[in-house]
Amino acid sequence: MKKPIFVILTLFLFSKAYAQKCLSNEDIYAMCRDSVSSSVIITKMKYSECCFNLASSDLIEISKNKVPDEVINEMIAQMGSHKRTSSRGRSPRVPKSFSNRRD
């Protein structure tokens, strides 16, 4: 009985170790530096989990790394769509002061 559990646990841990990591700003810099075309980078973003840092200071750094505008726009769109889908299905938070009001 213990052997199947051990095998399943081992497979789970190895699958996590070999899972593809989240696509980051540094990955985009590397692809641009290595002359990967914008269309290929954008396709990669569409089919990958993305975890870009897009604060104003990060956007300046992205531009300094010569990332094309169409790639930057897709980075923003990917993170925007991530925010929309992650909150889907939940009710918006309403302050208690509004929910207890009687008209």
UniProtKB/TrEMBL annotation:
The keyword Signal applies. Residues 81-93 have a biased composition (Basic residues). It comes from the Bacteria. Residues 78-103 are annotated as: Disordered. Keywords: Signal. Residues 1-19 form the signal peptide. This is Uncharacterized protein.
